[in-house]
Amino acid sequence: MSQGIQKNSSLRFHRNSRFLSAADGLLPALQQTRLQPVGVVDVIADTSEALGWKAIKSPLPASLIERELAPGDEVIIDFGTHCVGYFGLHCESAGSPPDAPAHLQFIFGETAAEMGVPFSEYSGWLSSSWLQQADIYLDVLPEQVRLPRRYCCRYVKIKVISTSAKFNLKLSDIHLNTLTSADSTSLARLHHPDALLDQIDQVSVLTLRNCMQEVFEDGPKRDRRLWLGDLRLQALVNYQTFEQNDLVKRCLYLFAGVTREDGMVSSNLFMKPDVIADDTFLFDYALFFVATLADYIAATNDQQTLEDLWPTAWRQVELALGRVSEKGIVQDSDDWWAFIDWHESLNKQAPAQGVLIYCLMKARELARKIDGENVTLLTAKIDELKNAAMEQLWDENKGFFVSGAAQQTSCASQIWLVLAEIGDNDFRSQLISRLLANPPEIGMNTPYMMHHFIDALISVGETRRATLEIKKYWGGMVQAGADTFWELYDPKRPDFSPYGSKLINSYCHAWSCTPAYFLRKYGL
Amino acid sequence: MSQGIQKNSSLRFHRNSRFLSAADGLLPALQQTRLQPVGVVDVIADTSEALGWKAIKSPLPASLIERELAPGDEVIIDFGTHCVGYFGLHCESAGSPPDAPAHLQFIFGETAAEMGVPFSEYSGWLSSSWLQQADIYLDVLPEQVRLPRRYCCRYVKIKVISTSAKFNLKLSDIHLNTLTSADSTSLARLHHPDALLDQIDQVSVLTLRNCMQEVFEDGPKRDRRLWLGDLRLQALVNYQTFEQNDLVKRCLYLFAGVTREDGMVSSNLFMKPDVIADDTFLFDYALFFVATLADYIAATNDQQTLEDLWPTAWRQVELALGRVSEKGIVQDSDDWWAFIDWHESLNKQAPAQGVLIYCLMKARELARKIDGENVTLLTAKIDELKNAAMEQLWDENKGFFVSGAAQQTSCASQIWLVLAEIGDNDFRSQLISRLLANPPEIGMNTPYMMHHFIDALISVGETRRATLEIKKYWGGMVQAGADTFWELYDPKRPDFSPYGSKLINSYCHAWSCTPAYFLRKYGL
Q1: Where in chain A is the domain with CATH 2.60.120.260?
Q2: How much is the average pLDDT of B259-277?
Q3: 10 Å Cβ neighbour count for B4?
Q4: What is the ipTM of this complex?
Q5: pLDDT of residue B66
Q6: pLDDT surpasses 70 at A139
Q7: How far apart are CA A296 and CA A290, in angstroms?
Q8: How big is the CA angle at A46 (ends A44 and A52), to the nearest 5 degrees?
Q9: Is residue A275 less than 8 Å (CB to CB) from chain B?
Q10: From the CB of residue B14, how many other CB atoms can be counted at a distance below 10 Å?
């Protein structure tokens, strides 16, 4: 095992070349499919729509390729579903020989809202460079245009900015070469008798499919990166659908391949120009390395991978335990040390306590297979952390766990401590009932947090309620026209974005694809 | 000689494949030179500047490549002189690993004005696609950027539109791979004792050089095309400077290679995707095929080319004579039938009469070498046209030739009828003296028309005045900071554009490069 040091601003990283080379060997082939538009749309502002814009569909006019477009003309192409790929078209002139370059603008959108709201109005705090657009200047016509960047869209707005008085443009062969590493060979259709659940399953599967590229990306529009929190959920859905377990394995080796000097895995990796660990380190995400490895081993029984990666998993356990106070509680702080949910006001302490216990239980599963000596230690730690939580985080008057110095009551705290199996079954059942009857003010903002809510419901036997919640929440997105599940969805505030603009939200997001896991694994 | 028909909207064209293949065989090699910036500039609005903007130069800070650029930052690079070529740079990130695409904007300008005036303010009637700009999105850093289009510039404004909060950009290896087919081997420096004239000569030569690409382009920024009116003047300068006579020959074969069904040569050709004749046909420009061929034969005595192209030249004579009325005067009309000058109010009839006679004299030069039988006919026509002009266009009271139904008096009419050698030397001398003393209201707008003015001055022996006018007019551009001569220049209205915006004017334009011809040929 050869190792090197990578300097990343002020941080130092270990690179494990054997792991990286194993990951390289697992690089999946990308399937390409050439997709034609199914129609054109007009978009109109409509406050009854979740995202405020409605697409009025027309079949693709056969005359589109005969239509001459002059400066100012625009057309919105509809590919009929959410796609990831490379866009191209054929552009020719009509009229006199083109005596000026043709300037065309393309806007790509996962949703009708991105077609309706001018990008110039964007004022979110994430980089505007994520807004998918391109301006091209064609000096010679005809030209077979192939835009060099990968886009993520259902709709493409094509606008002619300028030609000259002497010629117009005709467009043809509009297409998207879609990309995915998902191979549907092992994929069975669910054929759920409930039409909405069946649709939810299909949308889940498409969401996962479009996020499956050279790695499990979090979102093919944004951030197009391998995040550990997303990977864990994608892997769970994958075991029930595509069963491309080598892609999970590849991602685990990648995380283990570039770790911080102290051995901590990063919250996310960049793949290009080389595998680079981001300098964002999160308590919960690092621990999910352990959970993801345990789920992978449970699905595959891949002993070699367990032997290779157990030291990395164990190191996450050690580092996480290092943050536990003498009193057995994860220490809180004001910086971005744990993710849990996209929520401005959420205190992370109690949910992180839950994540830690949950992942220690996953570690114990693995230790039983490879590191028996540590099983006892892990059991002792799990008990200690559970007891400490019950003693110090439980508020008997409120009937809820509280978090942080301000003793905050949040959904996330209850859910993660239920998933940590605190208390007996009755205790957890009653806690969940209380949560349902009287939800704390600090609620849930993301499908990611909703996943854990559903998981917690199932863990206490509330499968009927879990099904209803899936229909209500993910079904709400389906009814709002989602082709793939969104990064963010709050039925009461459909415009919600933690980034300051719905335009920059991802509308095909890995952490939102888990209904297919619940429906298929638990037969909901 | 094989011929085909090309359908070009409703017009039909003859393609002469032997001529086109001869032109192909003369395709010049392009010389590439990698140019580094010489400094950076700030631009400030300054009404004392000809184009309203001043560039304040600073040497290239050694620290530029160390400087971190954040969103909103911009830098204006100065290549020190006018260039044509492909732009590139190396872009890397500074800070955390780049977690969003980098969006950069480039604006290319031949002048400081293009750096100062936002392109969004452009409202001219030529296509805005000529405004040289590019937006790029870099998904992976570092990247060696090479923009795919050829640009024409002295200055490049580089603006960082967006990155993310986690990284900035560092730029290095900023360069332009300049292109020209001009080969300076035969070029001698003039070393004129008058410093301004010496500078005018050098600027002329650079103007020609930057227009010499695969053909003689009219302007490398706009229209980047082979125009006959420009070609004629470029060829004249070329014989005195680069002596790349094969490039003239190539352009003549190209014009003869694609002619209208009736044999008329187009005013201009497009080179890509194939040789295409524009559907703009101009009385004067078609006749200049004859003049350009005569000048080429005078310079080279290339008998084969004369034999090949004389029929095309003769056909232009026939077609032009077809427009002459029974009274021996070129018929006027309201459409764009002759160019003469960029002037809204100019009547073209009398100047066109001059152009016709001038080109018939050029045809006679050629006929003497190849088609003796037609010499007498040409002489008769020349005399008939001269007499008709004197009888019907001369206004004894005004002491000027008049043009069109409204009997307009213009500089262009006098100049072209002087160049047509109407009347005796004294008559023409007096006419020019009168023009100088009392210029008609309809003046001259372009260096192109100014060329013919200088030519007319020299033709009547006013070489001293010609020199003064060159110093005043082209010297004015030099003093205004021109690296190359501009398409349009009116000292009284430096903002003048026949296209509605100075931004779209070409600032390196073929028809403006002729001082080097006058200075070198006539030893001014």
Answers
A1: 31-180
A2: 97
A3: 11
A4: 0.96
A5: 75
A6: yes
A7: 10
A8: 100
A9: no
A10: 18
What CATH number was assigned to the domain covering residues A31-180? 2.60.120.260
Question: Got the DSSP string for A299-330?
Answer: HH--HHHHHHHHHHHHHHHHHHHTTB-TTS-B
CA distance A224 to A227: 9
What's the pLDDT at B62? 65
With beta carbons less than 8 A apart as the criterion, state whether A252 and A305 touch.
yes
Closest Cβ–Cβ partner in B100, B273, B279 for A127: B100
Listed in sequence order, the residues at least 6 apart from B17 whose beta carbon sits closer than 8 Å to its beta carbon are: B1, B2, B3, B4, B257
What's the rounded Cα separation, in Å, for the pair B41 and B107?
A: 14
**Contact call for B127 and A97, based on CB within 8 A:** no
Residue owning tokens 């059991």:
A379
Q: For residues B20-44, give the mean pLDDT.
A: 97
Chain centroid offset of residue B22 CA? 24
Looking at CA atoms only, how far is residue B165 from chain A in angstroms?
A: 8
Phi, psi of B151 (to 5 degrees): -120, 165
Alpha-carbon gap, residue A20 to A253, rounded angstroms: 7
Q: How far is CA B299 from CA A390, B236, B249, B355, in A?
A: 102, 9, 11, 21
pLDDT in tens, B477-520: 999 999 999 999 999 988 889 999 999 999 999 999 999 999 99
Using CA atoms, how far apart are residues A505 and A489, in angstroms rounded to an integer? Answer: 10
Measured between alpha carbons, how far is B431 from B462 in angstroms, rounded to an integer?
Answer: 12
Separation of alpha carbons B75 and B157, rounded Å: 6
When pLDDT is averaged across residues A9-34 and rounded to a whole number, the result is 95
Q: How far apart are CA A277 and CA B339, in angstroms?
A: 65
B contacts of A106 (beta carbons < 8 Å): none
> How far is Cα A492 from Cα A503, in angstroms, rounded to an integer?
18
- Residue-wise pLDDT for A307-327, tens only, equals 999 999 999 999 999 999 999
Q: Would you tell me which residues 103-162 of chain B have a C-beta closer than 8 angstroms to some C-beta of chain A?
A: 103, 125-130, 134-135, 137, 139-142, 149-150, 161-162
Place of tokens 């297409």: A175
